[in-house]
Design brief:
The structure is a homodimer of 353-residue chains. The first copy, chain A, has twelve helices and twelve strands. Chain A is of the alpha/beta class.
C-alpha cells in the first residue's frame, strides 16, 4: 500500500543531527550532544527506598488509573514550591503534571495554535520544542539573541508584521546557547506579550542548576495578566527517565491542556509522579540543589578551562551561568556537519552541529 | 487576557459524562463506569520485587533518558509474543512502545489524518479514542453494529461516499458494548480496507481477557498488504498506572509515529517499560492470563445473573465473551442522563450513559 501522511508530516523529517548522533549509545563515545543530566546526580538509593515504601504502603494506588491532571499531593507540593518563587497565582492559576516538560510544550501548542499560526522563538532554540510546533503546522519565526537575550526591537517588528500566537523562550541557560536573559529583557518581553496579547511559553528546565551569578526572577513572576505558561521538570534535578514535568499557568488554558492530555496518555505514570512527590517530601530542597549546582559548576569549569587551553583562538564560546549547555562557534569556513561527523567517527566525541 | 484557542478545541469539550462521574473517586461509590481493571488482578508483590531488582542491578538505566521507540529488550519480547500470535511480520513490521494504547491511537491519527479527513468507527465506540480523533479535527462517521460486529454493507457505503483515511475498530469485547466481531466480519472489513486503501486501527486492549467462547484471530493476522496498525496494552493485564502500551505495524508508518512521539513525551517512563519487560520474562504467560480470565469470568457471571434476577424485563443486555464491558439498553422513554445522575446520587452506583 502507498501511505499518505498528514500535511504536518512533510515538515517533520528525521534530522541530519539525529542521523549523526544515532550511535551515541556506544559507550566509547563521549556524549557532549544531548542534555542528559550527569548520572552522578541521580539519588538512586533514595529513589529505590521511595519505590519500595510506595509498594509497601499503597501498591494499588501506585498501579491503578489516576486523574489526568496529575497526582493531587504532588500538585499541592508543586504549588507550594511555585508560590515560594512567586510563580503561582492562587486565584488565577492551576498546575498540571505532564510527561516531561516536552509534553507541556506540545499540549500548549496544540490548544493554542491552529495551522499557520505564528510562534516566535530565540534563534537558535531547542529542537524538541521546535519540532513539536512544526507537528502542528505552526509558522516559526526565529529572533536573534545577544548577550542579554532575545533582541527586543527585532521581536517587536515580528509582532507588528505577524499574528503571533505565542513566544517560546528559555530564559535560563538556554538550550543550545547556554545564555541567560537579563531581568530588563524579561520585563521588556513580558510587556510586548501583554501589548500584543500573545502567550509566553516560558520553558525553565535548567533554572535550578545555576552555578554562578545571581538568580533572576522568572517572567512568570511579573505575570498579572495571565499571559505566561511556565514549564518545569524533574528531568534535570531528579531523573529524566521518570518523564515528569509540570506546567503552571492560567486555569482556563490548563483546563484545555488537560482535555488534550487525556486523549494523549490519560495520565503520566503514577509511580513516577509519586516518586517525585516523596522526593519533595524527603529532601531539604536548597541543600539538595546546592549539591547539584556544585557538581555542574565543577563540570562547567573543567570544560571552559579545556576549551581555553586546547581550542584554537578563532573560536567563540558562550559563558553559561548554569545548566547543561555551552556553545562554541567555529570560523565561517568550517563545514559544521562534516566537523561533527569527523568528531564522532574519528575522536568518538558527540557534539550537536 | 481573552484567550483564543485552536479550532480543534471547539469540538473538545469536557463531557456531560465526565461531569456526572467526577465524584467516582468517592470510595462509597460502586464503580461500574470506567474500565479500571480489578485491583485483585494486580501482581503487586511481583512488581515490587521487580522494581527493587531493577534498582539493585541497573539504577542508572532505569533513570536516564532512553530512546523514543521504547526499551529494546521489551520490544524484542513483544515481537516474540506478537509473532506467536501471527501479529508481527518480521520483514515489514516494527513495534514501538507507547504511553498506553491511547497514545498509539493518538499518534496514528496525528501522522495519518489532516483536518477534515474521515475516520469510520463502530457506533458507539470508546470515547477516549473518538476524542483523540476530534482533537485533530477529523470527521468521524459511526457505523452501526449487530451481533456479529460492524455492519459491512453500511461500512462500504461510507467508504464509497467519503475519503476514509482509517477505520477504528475494537474487535474483541468492544468498549462500550462488550460485543465481539466474528471471523467473517473481520475478513470482510479487512477486504474493504484493502479495496479502498484505508488503514485499520485495530485496538485490542481486552483480547487476553476472554472468559468464554473460542479465540478469534486478530485482523492483523490477515494483513499481507500493510494496512493494519495493531494496538495492545499492559493496562488490563498488568496495571494501567504504568501507562505502557504498544503498536505493531508497517515500519513506514511507525517511523512517523516515532517522530511524533519524540515531540510528545520523548519516551515512555523507562522504569514502567522495564517492569513490563521483567514481567514478561518472569511469568508463564498462558498460566498467568488463565487466572485473569477466571477472575473476570467470575465477575461477569455475577453481573449477568444479577441483571437477570433484579432488572425489569424490558431492558436489553449484551453477552460479552471477555473484557470489562457490558451494555444494558433501557426502554426508549427513559432519560439516560437523568437515570445516571440518580444512580450515582441516590444509589452510589456509577454507570456511563
Amino acid at each position: 500500500m502507498q501511505y499518505h501522511f498528514s500535511p504536518a508530516m512533510d515538515r517533520l523529517q528525521s534530522s541530519a543531527i539525529r542521523e549523526i548522533l544515532k550511535n551515541t549509545a556506544d559507550p566509547a563515545v563521549i556524549p557532549f550532544a544531548a542534555g542528559n543530566p550527569s548520572q552522578e546526580a541521580f539519588p538512586t538509593q533514595m529513589i529505590r527506598e521511595i519505590s519500595d515504601e510506595l509498594f509497601a504502603t499503597d501498591p494499588i494506588g501506585v498501579l491503578q488509573y489516576n486523574i489526568t491532571e496529575g497526582y493531587i499531593p504532588l500538585r499541592d507540593a508543586l504549588k507550594a514550591w511555585l508560590k515560594e518563587e512567586h510563580c503561582f497565582n492562587e486565584e488565577k492559576d492551576e498546575v498540571i503534571v505532564t510527561s516531561g516538560a516536552q509534553q507541556g510544550i506540545e499540549l500548549a501548542c496544540k490548544v493554542l495554535c491552529g495551522s499557520g499560526d505564528t510562534i516566535v522563538c530565540e534563534s537558535p532554540s531547542f529542537v524538541g520544542s521546535l519540532n513539536a510546533f512544526k507537528s502542528y503546522q505552526v509558522n516559526l519565526v526565529g529572533v536573534e539573541t545577544d548577550e542579554e537575550g532575545i533582541d527586543v526591537e527585532k521581536l517587536e517588528k515580528v509582532m507588528q508584521t505577524h499574528t503571533v500566537k505565542a513566544m517560546y523562550l528559555i530564559p535560563n541557560f538556554q538550550n543550545p546557547t547556554g545564555k541567560t536573559m537579563t531581568l530588563a529583557r524579561r520585563k521588556a518581553v513580558y510587556d510586548l506579550a501583554v501589548k500584543y496579547q500573545c502567550i509566553i511559553l516560558e520553558d525553565n528546565p535548567y533554572g535550578d542548576l545555576r552555578f554562578q551569578g545571581e538568580n533572576i526572577p522568572s517572567i512568570k513572576t511579573f505575570d498579572t495578566e495571565g499571559v505566561v505558561l511556565y514549564m518545569r521538570s524533574f528531568s534535570k534535578i531528579l531523573a529524566p527517565g521518570l518523564r515528569v514535568g509540570y506546567v503552571s499557568g492560567p486555569k482556563e488554558i490548563l483546563a484545555k491542556m488537560v482535555i488534550c492530555k487525556q486523549v494523549s496518555d490519560v495520565h503520566s505514570t503514577i509511580w513516577a509522579q509519586r516518586v517525585c512527590h516523596q522526593f519533595l517530601e524527603k529532601v531539604e530542597k536548597s541543600e539538595y540543589l546546592s549539591k547539584l549546582r556544585t557538581l555542574y559548576g565543577r563540570k562547567y569549569r573543567l570544560m571552559a578551562e579545556s576549551i581555553e587551553k586546547y581550542f584554537p583562538s578563532e573560536i567563540q564560546v558562550t559563558h553559561p551561568e548554569g545548566g547543561l549547555f555551552l556553545r562554541v562557534t567555529l570560523p565561517d569556513h568550517i563545514d559544521m556537519l562534516a566537523f561533527c561527523k569527523k568528531a564522532i567517527n574519528e575522536a568518538k566525541v558527540a557534539v550537536v552541529p
